[in-house]
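ok, trying the design again with the full structure, not the truncated one.
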């Protein structure tokens, strides 16, 4: 299609926008042709669906990975799979690279555009299509916020188990693209365990619709697993069939203190055996984390300081008259055995929320400790304490100009230890975010992850921020197979290239 083939309004827009896009399109194969394709796409999908040049919103220029924003050439906002298909076909014809975007809460750069790219935003693909109580499933558009999914399940008397701090703004499609984990993995599994069917658009525009609702469906390859966790590099998820569970009728929680990591492991084993399927969360906080959230963030704690580890244990039951006394008796037995040095039991939902406020206080760290870098790794549970001890010492030993030896990079530790996921925050006081010695932090933190046989990403994905370190957790053969899959599905390399692999 040439400019002469465009509608009059499109031709006028092309004339108006050409100077704005000239520098960005110069890097593409045929800038004028690329602009023609974008304008033709806008004519097909509607003016509100394709925002070009100066009309690109600020929000689409970055995700939450603390990198510098980049304005994409255009933001395409389809309303359905057919619109996504049209967008990908138009971009393929113009050889424009495309980055899928959801809630833009990712921390690894997976949804961040690069110069000359088109951002494919799913922000208009929002809503619940169906809740099927017979099959305990929900069919939703990929742009739907996680919290909206949770509320729809609750309104239907059911429960969607995935939960994380960004629930109000992250999109469920983005949660699947990174295989998000969150707070209750120990009971319900990662995001991939909560998906039964997908609709996906491939890089060439082919729509694959497999909105399966059945727990058992062994008819050939489980194709949905190709796209869950692939961070928008193999296809764009547009609709999802989610697995729902029965709604918990009661929630019990305890804030416990133990001496050390051996105490953590003993408590975890006791929770697995004593609580069984009721166990829904097992969150561990190191003393350095505890000090920051209670003394600097001023979060109220029902357990005194001075202990080696603090553990939030949560259980979800179906009958409060039975499950609450059982939980109480389990804790009392552990106290009698001397395993717990202190403990507080939630007496109300408000107490449960108060316990979680300690764990969720990490969201306020920019206000409390200033600029810092957040890390998400996974390690064998038995090795986590040794890793944290060695990592903290190694970071402190990193020399920082103008500071005494041993006063280098500070760090604090916490995480979903029941499912092997450790979070840590590292920073150097007095430095802005761009000035933080991230490269040196990465080398220490991910180098030790490799030493202890862990994963450089537990639940946040790889994106661009961790791509350099993927080989610390995956073999050459595994990475080669990932590249084979990428080449097979995206031979032009246009869908989120340079991410993950």
């Amino acid at each position: 299609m040439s400019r002469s083939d465009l509608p009059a309004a499109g031709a006028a827009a092309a004339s108006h926008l050409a100077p704005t896009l000239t520098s960005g399109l110069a890097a593409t194969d045929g800038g004028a042709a690329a602009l023609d394709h974008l304008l033709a796409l806008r004519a097909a999908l509607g003016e509100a669906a394709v925002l070009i040049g100066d009309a690109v919103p600020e929000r689409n220029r970055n995700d939450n990975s603390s990198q510098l924003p980049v304005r994409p050439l255009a933001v395409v906002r389809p309303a359905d799979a057919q619109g996504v298909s049209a967008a990908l076909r138009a971009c393929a014809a113009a050889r424009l690279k495309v980055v899928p975007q959801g809630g833009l809460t990712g921390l690894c750069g997976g949804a961040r555009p690069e110069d000359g790219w088109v951002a494919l935003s799913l922000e208009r693909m929002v809503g619940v299509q169906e809740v099927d109580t017979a099959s305990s499933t929900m069919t939703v558009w990929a742009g739907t916020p996680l919290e909206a999914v949770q509320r729809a399940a609750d309104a239907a008397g059911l429960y969607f188990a995935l939960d994380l701090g960004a629930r109000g703004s992250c999109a469920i499609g983005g949660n699947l693209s990174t295989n998000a984990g969150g707070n209750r993995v120990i009971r319900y599994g990662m995001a991939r365990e909560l998906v039964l069917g997908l609709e996906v658009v491939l890089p060439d525009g082919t729509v694959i619709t497999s909105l399966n609702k059945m727990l058992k469906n062994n008819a050939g390859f489980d194709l949905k697993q190709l796209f869950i966790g692939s961070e928008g590099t193999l296809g764009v998820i547009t609709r999802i069939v989610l697995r729902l569970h029965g709604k918990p009728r009661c929630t019990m929680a305890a804030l416990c203190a133990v001496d050390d990591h051996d105490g953590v492991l003993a408590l975890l084993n006791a929770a697995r055996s004593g609580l069984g399927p009721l166990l829904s969360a097992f969150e561990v906080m190191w003393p350095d984390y505890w000090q920051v959230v209670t003394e600097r963030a001023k979060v109220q704690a029902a357990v005194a300081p001075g202990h080696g580890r603090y553990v939030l244990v949560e259980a979800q039951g179906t009958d409060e008259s039975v499950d609450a006394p059982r939980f109480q008796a389990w804790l009392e037995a552990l106290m009698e055995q001397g395993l717990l040095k202190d403990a507080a039991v939630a007496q109300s939902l408000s107490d449960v929320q108060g316990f979680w406020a300690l764990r969720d206080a990490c969201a306020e760290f920019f206000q409390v400790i200033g600029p810092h870098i957040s890390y998400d790794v996974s390690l064998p549970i038995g090795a986590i304490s040794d890793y944290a001890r060695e990592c903290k010492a190694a970071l402190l030993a990193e020399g920082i100009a103008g500071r005494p030896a041993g006063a280098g990079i500070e760090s604090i530790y916490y995480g979903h230890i029941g499912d092997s996921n450790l979070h840590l925050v590292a920073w150097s006081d007095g430095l802005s975010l761009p000035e933080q010695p991230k490269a040196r932090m990465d080398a220490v933190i991910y180098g030790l992850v490799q030493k202890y046989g862990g994963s450089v990403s537990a639940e946040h994905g790889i994106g661009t921020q961790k791509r350099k370190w993927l080989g610390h957790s995956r073999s050459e053969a595994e990475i080669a197979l990932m590249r084979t899959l990428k080449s097979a599905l995206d031979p032009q390399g246009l869908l989120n290239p340079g991410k993950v692999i």
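Keeping the full-length input from now on. The chain has four domains: 3-121, 128-246, 250-362, 369-481.
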